[in-house]
Amino acid sequence: MAVNTLTLPAPAKLNLFLHIVGRRPDGYHNLQTVFQFLDYADTLKFHSNNESKFNLVDQSSHIPNQENLVWKALIKLHNAYHSKGITQLPGCTIELIKKLPQGAGLGGGSSDAATTLVGLNRFWGSRLTLSELQSLGTELGADVPVFIHGHACFAEGIGNIFTDISPPNRWYLIVKPDVSISTAALFSHPQLQRDCAPITADNWQNKPTTNVFEPVACDLHPEVAMLRRALLEYAPTRLTGSGACLFSAFETRQAAKEAQQHISEGVRSFIAHGQNRSPLIQTLTQ
Fold first, then answer.
1. Which residues are the active-site residues?
2. What is the pTM of this model?
3. Which domains occur in the chain, in start order?
């Protein structure tokens, strides 16, 4: 094998806006959104072993291995290789080092799964194409394919049809209120807007945009509404994904830092820079 250890980031993402433009016959929602990555990430280390066994070391998330998206991604990729007749695969221990908050709308679990698929595929000789990896990712979660795609994009469908774009690389203050938001509760909320007018990849920056989950999340969780009002004192602020994180956009890191100093103690926050090329892809191509 070419390497004994491969270390890769699993970056966060932001939804710069998120619209629902209708429902599909299968019951899913048709979305429009813009994904941009952050230079803030979990870390996965792939260690070869001589036992032809697979292990996951995760001392941070406290998720049982069988429910962990990293483990599920490993099994899916292993089965995909077997279906191609590739059965002699080197053993590997995956070490997951969490940095991204869970249940935050930052795509942490999906990003971990994507980095597992991409990293193990590289570890095992890159036998699967990018398209095949994205197909496997779709089976793990709606946000997994964009992390494999690896470029900021205007996304449609269920969030899996991509048009590459290059939004401004702003500095973001990301703040997570101490709440747990149920995605299912948001999707089933009677006040959720499901009929946004469609926009296009080449005009989205000239159109009024929002995150349709934001007013519902603020209604269900007063802590989110209160924090949003506080952040709006300093910069444009929006919910990412289905929450719970809010992000405020700044032109400089210093401006973001100054706003961060006014955030209430006990609320988790960090500053990150927008990335139009995923840190995962940047690392792999270095």
1. 13, 143
2. 0.94
3. 5-164 (3.30.230.10), 171-275 (3.30.70.890)
